[in-house]
Amino acid sequence: MSKFNNKTVVITGGNSGMGLATAKSFLAEGAHVIITGRSQDNLDKATATLASDKLTTVVSDLSGLAGIETLVEAVKKTGRKVDTLFLNAGIAQFLPIEHTTEEAFDSMFNTNVKGLYFTLQKMLPYLSDGASVILNSSVVATGAMANASAYAATKAAVSSIGRIAATELAAKNIRVNIVSPGPIDTPIFDKGGYSDAEKQGMRDMLTAAVPLGRLGTSDEVAKAVVYLSSPEAAFITGAELLVDGGIGLRR
Question: How far apart are CA 47 and CA 82, in angstroms?
Fold first, then answer.
């Protein structure tokens, strides 16, 4: 029997990329999985890809409290406690400081920081005894990547929230850990309005910076999340697991 059989997993931003891969991994392990996305169309595509009767989808924009409440209500309706909460929803725009607009800054902080923080807060009453919370940060949080000042600041905040949450929630027998991916080949490359040449240029630049000589995959991040949620990681909390091909060695 799978170690996640009949466990309940909530994944924010689970309709694509790392979130979708993580949902697939948990479903394969027998878990009931709830994923969020901002549009029904994207969730319908995820549903077709995952093809499981243990999947629940929730249309929810988690950048505001109203959207978070929509997720909470969906969880309440299941009547089950949540065993793993993967706070994965996030957006990125890569702009130099001089060209970063207030709109871009607020959009990233509202989704990546405010949304994550209050989703964690509002979900606390629905976490099971011994639950695992995973926050998706990034190696840029402690790096100095040009054109990533606002995005990196959001991820530094995520990592800080994760460490403090691990301290506060230990008394509730809730473990909190952080995954910090390096360059991962996800649909995020297609969301910035970049030309094909620009996207390829970014891929080439990032690949050259990785000691292992390639971009990571969403499946590799998913495996890290599943591990941190597993009984094998029962004595791990407050940790940051780099899934970065060694790029953190060059910071």
Answer: 20
Does pLDDT of 205 surpass 90? no
Query: What pLDDT score does 173 carry?
Result: 98
Cβ(39)–Cβ(239) below 8 Å: no
Query: 191: which residues sit within 8 A by CB, 6+ positions away?
Result: 91
CB 208 within 8 A of CB 202: no
d(CA 67, CA 58): 10
- Report, as an integer, the average pLDDT of 207-230: 96
Cα–Cα distance measured from residue 34 to residue 47, given in angstroms and rounded to the nearest whole number: 11
Tokens of 154: 């959001």
Residues marked active site are found at 151
Backbone angles phi, psi at 37, to 5 degrees: -160, 165
Q: Is CATH 3.40.50.720 the classification given to domain 8-245?
A: yes
CA distances (Å), origin 209, targets 92, 181, 214 = 19, 14, 9
